Amino acid sequence: VLIVSADSRAANMARFAVDKWANHTELQGRRVLFLGQWGFQWYAELHQAACFDRRSATSAQPGDRVMVDVVGSWSFPENLYPNSRLIDVVSDSTPGGVVLDREKNVGFYADSFGHLPWFWAPAGTPRFELWEIQ
């Protein structure tokens, strides 16, 4: 029950964030990119969002929007895009269970994340960010 509820929580937040940001960005005629995996990637690709390479300074152009699933060590590469700005954040304001978090050694779906199947996380976990490339 703990694993299913944590997985459902993360999936619903990912779906909400992508639907909110991708729909708005598409209406503005901007290109939408994503940095994330699992359900977040699935929802982003439903909106024709392209994959963002966090190691390449040419992956995005000025005006592009990048949706980021902040899981453990995943983050927007501010060093490659120093003038970019954080536009919006979606996170849970209450603590709850998580099934994927590298920093906490939690990897129910992937041993590369960790060996624990579940962890009680503080408020703000999971976290999703929307960045605009300048």
User: Which series of helices and strands comes N to C?
Assistant: HEHEEEEEEEE
Could you describe the largest sheet, including whether it forms a barrel? 5 strands, mixed
* Average predicted local confidence, pLDDT: 90
What is the 3D shape? globular
- Helical amount: 25-40%
Return Rg in Å.
15 Å
Indicate the proportion of strand residues. Answer: 25-35%
Can you describe this structure?
- By secondary structure, the protein is of the alpha/beta class.
- Helices cover 25% and strands 26% of the residues.
- It has two helices and nine strands, in the order αβαββββββββ.
- The chain has helices spanning 2-27, 39-46, and strands spanning 32-35, 50-51, 65-70, 85-91, 96-98, 100-101, 106-107, 119-121, 127-132.
- The strands form three sheets. The protein has a five-stranded mixed β-sheet with strand order 2-1-3-9-4, covered by helices on one side. Strands 5-8 form a two-stranded antiparallel ribbon. A two-stranded antiparallel sheet has the order 6-7.
- α2 links the parallel β1 (32-35) and β2.
- α1 (2-27) packs parallel to α2.
- The chain is globular.
- The model has no long low-confidence stretch (mean pLDDT 90).
